[in-house]
Give the backbone structure.
Amino acid sequence: MIATALEILKTVYGYDAFRGPQARIVAHVIGGDNAFVLMPTGGGKSLCYQIPAIARPGMGLVVSPLLALMADQVAALRQAGVRAAALNSDLPADERRALWRDIHGGSLDLLYVAPETLLRQAVLERLGQTRLSLIAIDEAHCLSQWGHDFRPSYRQLDALVGLFPDTPRMALTATADEPTRAEILSHLDIAETDAFIAGFDRPNIRYTIEEKDNPRAQLKDFLKRHKGESGIVYCLSKRKTEETAAWLRDQGYDALAYHAGMDRAAREANQMRFQHGEAVVMVATIAFGMGIDKPDVRFVAHIDLPGSIEAYYQETGRAGRDGLPSDALMLYGYEDIALRSRFIEQSDTPDPRKRMERQKLDALLGLAETAGCRRQVLLSYFGDDCEPCGNCDTCAEPPRLFDGTIAAQKALSCVYRTGERFGQAYIVDVLLGVENDRIAQFGHNRVSTFGIGTEHDNRTWRAILRQLIALRLVDVDLAGHGGLSITPAGRDFLRDKPTLMLRVPAAPRARRQKVARSAAQSAVTEADRDLFQALRQKRMDIARAQNVPPYVIFHDKTLIELAAARPASRAEMAKVPGVGDAKLDRYGPAFLAVIAEHA
């Protein structure tokens, strides 16, 4: 059984050995058992269902959330010689009829389908007449009402349990905390003994979280390290998406916008350009979601606070799927906390859901404000752990802490003395003793807290107040204009006066002049760089001729291996990871010729 799986792994995908728990999962499913697979993005989840589908009799049915994602996966499989197709509502009638002939004729290894299409009665009836090797539900966290990306159509997939009781079921995801995992197992009737938890760590991603100081300057500074590389910039609003994309174009970047308010054709055209390009920056709202199967995304930047740790993990996980070094930057400030809190309180959801969302926001703020290793905090949220990683900003430059007990008392007293109705900027001005008409108008130049905070500057006071909000000692008036008030926990703090250690705000990123070499450049030696670029150009030429994304030909990682190994024959090229039989037949001569030119 495992010998068959290894043969498929080598001949189809070009790899000699499975990674992590892949071998156990593949053997488990080939044997006819169900499986829940939680594996980090880039960890090889797709192979866990693709190889059993090829090895078992019948056709593998894969439920996937987005048409663009399905199209990419089908294109990549066909390049590798796998008989794959996608069934969706956009297919012309003649293509749909031809596809059903292939399905019933047994000439497909894998069929991808969206849940909305699959759950149509006519589709279910016709699939009931087909021998299925397995049913794989990708992005299975969408099934959970407690997950960050709940989709009602996914919830209805539990009907498959009764309709196909003898077909192995797989649920796969990269993002699921314990309540979400339990819900998936329950609804799809998968036993806990059939669960494979491979961990959450993405060691190739470097996490950086900064206070918003000058967001555009901070973003520009971050992007200097990624010239000529693809990445994603996430924004909270449609307007900000458009404005940021236009600004980046003015800065010389090939930047595109993507949000739910755009015309569908324009969104699809922009996604196509991103998928097919090698140096495109996509500026997007979370509408640009799961349909990202692009392995060479070198960075993900959030210039607004994401919705939760799950959302942050999922969105940053779109970077570095090929395993090469990649960067994740998150900027956040006081306004982000207020806005996210407002979203929760004003949402039309039951109180238990709101409580859960508040807890998720608190956990995210804990990640943002930690003085310890970011990766440890991130993984602990999912019940995972690691040693201090050395690959996040707090490990590279540990933040300084100071005894903020007195500063917190001053800030809370100032909020109280001014009536618990003014925003952050006003409170900071009172603490610093700023003389202006507004403060004089309200008589706050005569309160006891006026000017008592001159030991700290404006930036430090903003950081202190932001941390007090994150610690839930201060609340933000969501219905009004962002006025600050003291929470019950804040009143307890003023009464009990416990020691409180706070972070000293880091120096503004824009002032740091060092620019690191990009990830792709770091992975290629100086001697191999010209050949690597020539191989990339050949790949792009082939991809354009076929109108497919370059990475479905070969990943960057495979090109790096080719540049280093410099194979001179078909047999030598077959030894390079990522070169399967079909791709060797199709592309071997062209790439060997490029290598020969650089001998």
